[in-house]
Design goal:
Elements (H helix, E strand, L loop, with lengths): L1 E5 L9 E7 L6 E2 L4 E6 L4 E5 L4 E5 L6 E3 L3 E6 L9 H29 L5 H10 L17 H6 L22 H16 L2 E9 L1 H18 L6 H14 L5 E4 L2 E4 L5 E3 L1 E3 L2 E3 L2 E2 L7 H16 L13 E5 L18 E5 L2 E8 L2 E15 L5 H16 L1 H4 L5 H4 L3
Helix pairs in contact: 6-7, 6-8
Length: 405
């Protein structure tokens, strides 16, 4: 039986995907649920599992953009899983070595003939650019210089002798990266984005974590990090200043009475932003466990589009990479984003005394079309107050109860 595998819908509103990478070759035998390809949508990169076991025939190539529902491969489910005996394998290995030796000899002859030659179109472009053929590495068959090679070629930067290897490569951006680029440019062009800054003293949070983090981890099997404090501080501030939890929809302002917090997580495919649904209902334990579960999915490539869609506010922590200060870009269609940064011990004044304290800069980028300066500054001050006085404001004067210990 020949099974047609079609592109599944990664999520609502997504109509096409790009075949980023085939993880198998044409003619391979694949097992059911084996990942056979990575597909890029404009929101995420996802693994595509085989729907059945059988021999696969690829119908599209890497880099192709295909519509949802399009046939991308065939599976011959009647094919048997090859079970080569040891002696057959040894014989095949000998034959393969012989074949490779023969092919290599032929290819070297062909290579010496075709290497460095180019098509008429490529030759015209190379002449216009005044580039030597020796400067171009052909990517066509047997080293032939293609039109694309000529278009990508960069003229030499002078005739002075240069030591060392000077090379570059051109790789097509994935659908996810291209869409991200469009979104980031649109943020700059279509929003009135401003950023306000403040700094917070992390001393109280350090003290709480140092005293309770081991007990918290033993009880809940998850670490007590900074994100739970900041998430709950943001939830409180969003309730106080609902305009920051709003979005523009054409000529309307939509204000939400719930807080779905997007948390930026770095993964192998870049930055992903999974969402904590109804963060206003979560405890410290709930926030930490949910973030851990979502972060694990991002790093394992198992996060779904639905899990990254629909946040009302974003928190991003550039401090984990060493960033001291930045202006984070709004995550559209949201209207604001909080940027956390590196924690550095600095001299500060407390009670007219200079002391050393762990300090962090905070940045709130916001869309001035919908959020006024007063609301943005007041929002950030509210976050600062909660972080610097977490026992009173976030824990209702009960640390053990808040941490469920």
């Amino acid at each position: 039986m020949i099974l047609e595998m079609k592109v599944p819908s990664p999520g609502e509103s997504i109509t096409e995907v790009e075949i980023s990478t085939w993880l198998v070759k044409d003619g391979d035998y694949v097992e059911k649920d084996q990942a056979i390809a990575e597909i890029d949508s404009d929101k995420a990169t996802l693994d595509l599992p085989a729907e059945a076991s059988g021999t696969i025939t690829l119908k599209v190539q890497e880099g192709d953009t295909v519509q949802v529902g399009h046939i991308i491969c065939l599976l011959d489910t009647d094919a048997e899983n090859p079970n080569i005996r040891k002696e057959d394998f040894e014989q095949n290995e000998k034959e393969a070595v012989s074949t490779v030796t023969s092919q290599t000899s032929q290819e070297s002859q062909t290579d010496s003939y075709a290497k460095g030659t180019c098509s008429p179109a490529a030759k015209k472009i190379i002449k216009e650019k005044n580039i030597s053929l020796s400067e171009i590495q052909g990517t066509g068959k047997n080293g032939r210089i293609t039109k694309n090679d000529a278009l990508q070629a960069v003229p030499s930067l002078g005739n002075q002798p240069i030591n060392g290897i000077r090379s570059y490569k051109s790789v097509k951006l994935s659908a996810l990266r291209r869409k991200l680029s469009e979104r980031l440019v649109s943020v700059k062009n279509q929003t009135a984005m401003l950023t306000t800054f403040n700094e917070v003293d992390m001393s109280e949070i350090f003290s709480i974590r140092n005293e309770y983090k081991e007990e918290f981890k033993n009880k809940h099997n998850v670490s007590l990090g900074f994100m739970s404090f900041f998430t709950l501080a943001v939830v409180r501030a969003l309730k106080m200043f609902p305009d920051v939890n709003s979005m523009i929809d054409k000529e309307n302002k939509i204000t939400y009475d719930f807080q779905d917090i997007s948390i930026a997580v770095s993964g192998p495919k870049g930055l992903m932003v999974p969402v904590l649904r109804n963060a206003e209902t979560m405890s410290f334990r709930g926030v930490e466990q949910t973030i851990k579960n979502l972060a694990d999915k991002v790093r394992e490539g198992k996060i779904t589009v639905d899990e990254m869609t629909g946040g009302t506010f974003t928190i991003t922590n550039g401090g984990v990479f060493g960033s001291m200060l930045s202006t984070p870009l709004i995550n559209p269609p949201q209207s604001a984003i909080l940027g956390m940064h590196n924690i550095i011990e600095r001299p500060v004044v407390k009670n007219k005394q200079i002391v050393i304290a762990p300090m962090m800069y905070l940045a709130l980028s916001y869309d001035h079309r919908i959020i006024d300066g007063k609301e943005s500054v007041s929002f950030l001050v509210a976050v600062k107050e909660a972080i610097e006085n977490p026992i009173d404001i976030l824990m209702n004067n009960g640390i053990r109860m808040a941490l469920e210990l």
